[in-house]
User: Fold this.
Amino acid sequence: MDEQTRKICAAARERFHERISEPSDELGQTSLEIERDALVDVARFLRDEAPFELLADLSCVDFLGVRRSERRFLVAYHLYSFVHNARLRLRVSVPEGDEWCPSVAGVWPTANWHEREVFDFFGIRFEGHPDLRRILMPDDWEGHPQRKDYPLGGTNVEYKGAMVPPPDLRRQPTTTTGYPGRIS
Assistant:
């Protein structure tokens, strides 16, 4: 982590105390864990004070079978500062059964479509979003297809005499985490 990013993270920690984690530096990317309720305040601070002018990407990961249910989903906000040529990732854990996150569309307008995509594929509701509806799947689609508990479905496919069954009929992978399944 460069000195400028370290200063920005220290200022954010000083302002938000226990609502924001110590920065971690994994694979060359600095990340901060943010409490869900503090997200909008931290985002405004980083946009106005740091400044991180661009929300470059917003993504979600379903950790079904890997993390406990109170941290099942991870919503990641990838920020970029043109002024400092720096990147920062904000991570917010979302529990199973209470799948919502505050919207940052009022902070970074690019969040509008990113949040709609995460809602469409993972079912995370973004409270305060100006137009939260499906963006890629048909309006009458049931479920959220990027969740790990969504049925895979599929059709048989032939390759020059070889037959590949649909994903839901293939043998399930097993890992040291016990997937498929859930950590209790």
About this structure: The mean pLDDT is 89.
